Amino acid sequence: MTTLEALVSAELAEPVDPRVSAMAGAIAAKHPGTRAIIFYGSCLRDATLSGMLDFYVIVDDYRRAFDRRWFAWLNQLLPPNVFPFASDGLAAKYAVLSRFHLHRETSVAARDPSTYARLAQPVRLVWTASDEDRVEIAAAVVQAIETLLNFASPLTPPGSDPLAIWRTAFANTYRTEL
Questions:
Q1: Closest Cα to residue 99, out of 72, 129, 62, 67?
Q2: If exposure means fewest CB atoms within 10 Å of the residue's CB, which of 116, 125, 130, 158 is most exposed?
Q3: What is the reported pTM?
Q4: Average pLDDT over residues 14-20
Q5: What torsion do the CA atoms of 169, 122, 130, 114 make, to the nearest 10 degrees?
């Protein structure tokens, strides 16, 4: 295991507020074939959980995950689709991605930077179906970090330190979202 893989695995395993884990379990129950749920975003660093919680729901297959065929079709066509969720006084939004799209959107083949940029930041794995899924998610997060740095490196002056590359990466990904 590389140093980056070890760091990512440790970060993914850090504990979260039990209400976050409970919400992740409730979301997983809505989508058959859910493999993992990743918690990310500003509420990850806000102990009060006063904002909107952000999740990625990783599923085997869109057709299995949605009871409405057109949701599955739309998610296949333009992943990820985002849905609202509320539970226990908390509000959330979650994006549904198939395992295939997770791996594509964290790689250099990504259609846009939104997924790899989000997963290259601090994230927690708050629900998994198996230990194999835990390993797969860790590999996708490592890939997201490598992809982000790969795209940002040519945008920084030669010899830039890693922090300068990191700042350049996020300045550019935020710009594309706005």
A1: 62
A2: 158
A3: 0.91
A4: 96
A5: -40
Query: What pLDDT score was predicted for residue 174?
Result: 62
Q: 10 Å Cβ neighbour count for 176?
A: 10
pLDDT per residue over 75-91, tens digit each?
787 888 899 999 989 99
How many helices (H) and strands (E) are present in the chain, helices listed first? 8, 5
38 Cβ partners below 8 Å, 6+ apart?
Answer: 55, 56, 58, 119, 123, 124, 125, 126, 137
Torsion of CA 111, 117, 122, 123, to 10 degrees: -20
pLDDT reading at 1 higher than 70: yes
Q: How many residues does the chain have?
A: 178
CA distance 173 to 177: 7
Q: To which H or E segment does residue 99 belong? A: helix 99-105
Please give the Cα distance from 173 to 28 (Å, whole number). Answer: 29
For 122-134, write each residue's pLDDT tens digit: 999 999 999 999 9
Beta bridge partners of 53: 92
